[in-house]
Design goal:
Layout lengths: L1 H22 L4 H12 L4 H8 L7 H38 L18 H15 L3 E2 L5 E3 H4 L25 E3 L5 H10 L4 E10 L11 E11 L4 H16 L5 E6 L4 E10 L16 E10 L1 H6 L8 E8 H9 L12 H4 L3
Parallel strand pairs: 1-4
Antiparallel strand pairs: 2-3, 4-5, 5-9, 6-7, 7-8, 8-9
Helix pairs in contact: 1-4, 2-4, 3-4, 5-10
The chain binds 3,4-dihydroxyphenylalanine.
The site of 3,4-dihydroxyphenylalanine has 11 residues, from strand 8 and strand 9.
Length: about 350
Amino acid sequence: MSEKSQLITELESLQQQAEKELAGLNNEDALQKWHTQYLGRSAMVMQIFKRLAEASKEERPLIGQFANQVKDALETQLSQKLETVKQSALQANLKSEQLDVTLPGRKPPRGRLHIQTTVLREIIHIFAEMGFQVFRTTEVESDEFNFELLNIPAYHPARDLWDTFYTTKEGVILRTHTSPGQVRSMRTFHPDPIRVILPGMCYRYEQMDASHEIQFNQVEVLVVGKDITFANMKGTLEEFARRMYGKDVRTRIRPSYFPFTEPSGEMDVECFVCGGEGCSVCSGKGWLEILGCGMVHPVVLKNGGYDPEVYSGFAAGLGIERISMLRYRIDDIRNFWGNDLRFLEQF
Ligand code: DAH
């Protein structure tokens, strides 16, 4: 009997002490400590359960029950107190950290045009002033348009010039250049005369390095009509170069080879870094290549629906990344589509 009262008395005074202490606490840390002290594993209330053996068989359930009551009561009071402490901390915070509605707002980040969009628009603008229309053609092409109709049959070694992405659908590829748009626009407009440019993304299966990318922009130039001559081509392309690089820029056209033009050429502009003397940008040549060009091959004219005995035309293909690289001295083509804002934000 005496043992029972002793355990119960211990519990009662423990409860009183715990409650008294709890009343004086006012932050979460202190409550945590209190919890360890009175309800943790080695707290006295918990020890009572172990000491039940000290009591007689009849008394044990009563003491156990009482100990549970004390434990529950303390836990309930703790969670109430915790809520009060949290609330008052929140109130204090709200009071001390007042919202200043007069502060200026945070600017949302604003996008801008990609450098290639800007350069492409500039090129389109120059050709538009010379009377050219933009003809939009497809990025996913057929082998037929990308090669065959441009006078590059399957066995032709010139195919090696264009590393190609093939799709799982036979004959469907990503275009390797904008030239297939030549035949598409001819088939759209014939027998009318044509003066168009065809801008857009091209794709090649390349080992990427500072001067090779698997995607890049080109602008194709196409003029078809009666009595279109090499002189018309030279005049048009030189005028483009003057408007793009300045009125005093010197240009030259070198002979070259493309299966879809005859004769074919490549146009250089005088290196604007060294003025033609030779430097690292132009690899000591004094000239920078900016485009391929030529008179449209009779086979291509025929494939577009124009009689080569009556009509003639010229075509050119400009690599837009190359034009930007030369203008802004960008030394790695991978920058354009790498999506690094530190690069893109400079333009
Ligand atoms: N399509 C050629 C290429 O990507 C570039 C080209 C050369 C286009 C000569 C032309 C041209 O229209 O006449 O390599």
